[in-house]
Amino acid sequence: MTTKKFTLQSLGCAKNLMDAEQMLAKLFEAGYEFVEDPDEADVAIVNTCSFIEDAKKESIETILELAECKKTGALVALVITGCMAERYKEEVLKEIPEADALVGTASFLNIVQVCDTLLETAEQGKMEKLMCFDDINTVLPESPRMQTTPAYTAYLKIAEGCDNHCAYCVIPSLRGRYRSRKMEALLAEAKVLAENGVKELIIIAQDITRYGIDLYGEHKLPELLRELAKIEGIRWIRLHYLYPSDITEELIDVIATEPKVLHYLDVPIQHCNDRILASMNRRDTKASIEDTIKRLRKRIPDLILRTSLIAGLPGETEEEFAELANFIEKQKFDRLGVFPYSQEEGTPAAEMDGQIEEDVKVKRAETLMKVQERVTARRNVRALGTVREVLVEGYDRAGGCYFGRSYGESPDIDGKIFFMKPEKNRPNDGDFVKIRIIEDLDGDLVGELVEEA
Question: How far apart, in Å, do the first and last CA atoms of the chain sit?
Fold first, then answer.
């Protein structure tokens, strides 16, 4: 029997990537062979994102590119999974007739059955469109994964869905209510990752601070972190994303005292103005956000704090926008991302009065990033002369230097630290070395090797 070949492209966030890793494991277990070139594949799978308009555009462009392969290559079937499939269902099949199957966010573990059915019916000359959608609030069974990140770094998704229901966000309607995974399953998975060489474990969920409330009736993230820290081989534990209203004193204490838990926190606040926060259906106020930041920095003096903001929510006035810009300058966040508000159908914010013109939203986002650039430049100047423990990620042949990350840089969203090739004992990817920072290079840092960490 001819081996069935597939290709898979996963778009969007790390949470989506973990779904893709589980699909990969299922397909490999079923005897499918992965190929990079879609022209050589029998089945192409696009694991889509549709969080904001730009993500939808990327998903559609990827789908259309693969659709062309049905005309020019061996590709038989095109499968769309993930958030766009869940969100638009029939619209996708209508607008993109080349798509042969849609698989929802709660159904991706059925990927083998979907692919088998498509290929078998195609061979018989009677392939029909498939729709595979289960209850998005179901508790997904535990399933093996095929790690796609570098051997030394892996994500650990501790929960699915979200109960926050922010006015601008579609996630609850695509991913369902918040469902924590059982702690024993998470610890077992983390041990396997460590045995396979993972040194940096990145804890992810739409909101990791709520972990355990649904399963155990109380916040369990502190206990989970303490147990993960006991696993031999894990050296760094990085946290994404913590909502300010659920950052407890117990959690702060664990972060401050457990050596493996990095003093890098991604805490999305979205805005600082009380009226805008209420319109967003956030549980915070400006005063509560300021108090949380104060408590964190007092307890964790070397904290690297990242946040994300939305510019141009409907009704945001020039005065409220100026307040946000001043807040950035005052709080001096170490890392910051800004998104122009995206009007997403099906969300309360999409129906609000006072929708702001796209060019105004973009300009406001750019203005906020310019404020942050000044903050970052001053921060990088203060970093000169300091010594950082750096996780080596690779060698840049063009630049003739190595690069990596300290605890202050998360993969894919923050900068790098570059350092020159040592004369001897050249490091391998995944090694830890000590680097003295000597230069700021447009936001990235340049250093010199001090010694192996």
Answer: 51
Q: CA 227, 164, 289, 382: dihedral to nearest 10 degrees?
A: 60
**Three-class HEC string of the chain:** CCCCEEEEEECCCHHHHHHHHHHHHHHHHCCCEECCCHHHCCEEEEEECCCCHHHHHHHHHHHHHHHHHHHHCCCCEEEEEEHHHHHHCHHHHHHCCCCCEEECCCCHHHHHHHHHHHHHHHHCCCCCCEEECCCCCCCCCCCCCCCCCCCCEEEEECEECCCCCCCCCCHHHHHCCCEECCHHHHHHHHHHHHHCCCCEEEEECCCHHHCCHHHHCCCCHHHHHHHHCCCCCCCEEEEECCCHHHCCHHHHHHHHHCCCEEEEEECCCECCCHHHHHHCCCCCCHHHHHHHHHHHHHHCCCCEEEEEEEECCCCCCHHHHHHHHHHHHHHCCCEEEEEECCCCCCCHHHHCCCCCCHHHHHHHHHHHHHHHHHHHHHHHHHHCCCEEEEEEEEEECCCCEEEEECCCCCCCCCCCEEEECCCCCCCCCCCEEEEEEEEEECCEEEEEEEEEC
- Compute the distance between CA of residue 20 and CA of residue 12 in angstroms, rounded to an integer: 11
Tens digit of each residue's pLDDT, the chain (453 residues): 478 999 999 998 899 999 999 999 999 999 999 999 998 999 999 999 887 777 788 888 888 888 888 877 779 999 999 999 999 887 888 888 889 999 999 999 999 999 999 999 998 888 889 999 999 999 878 999 999 999 999 999 999 999 999 999 999 999 999 999 999 999 999 999 999 999 999 999 999 999 999 999 999 999 999 999 999 999 999 999 999 999 999 999 999 999 999 999 999 999 999 999 999 999 999 999 999 999 999 999 999 999 999 999 999 999 999 999 999 999 999 999 999 999 999 999 999 999 999 999 999 999 999 999 999 999 999 999 999 999 999 998 888 899 999 999 999 999 899 998 777 778 999 999 999 999 988 878 999 998 654
Write the single-letter amino acid at 113.
Q
pTM given for the model: 0.94
> Between helices 249-257 and 221-228, what is the axis angle to 10°?
20
Contact of 314 with 355, CB cutoff 8 Å: yes
User: Nearest to residue 88, comparing CAs of 176, 206, 162, 174?
Assistant: 174
How far is it, in rounded angstroms, from Cα 344 to Cα 141? 30
Assess contact for 101 and 114: CB atoms under 8 A: yes
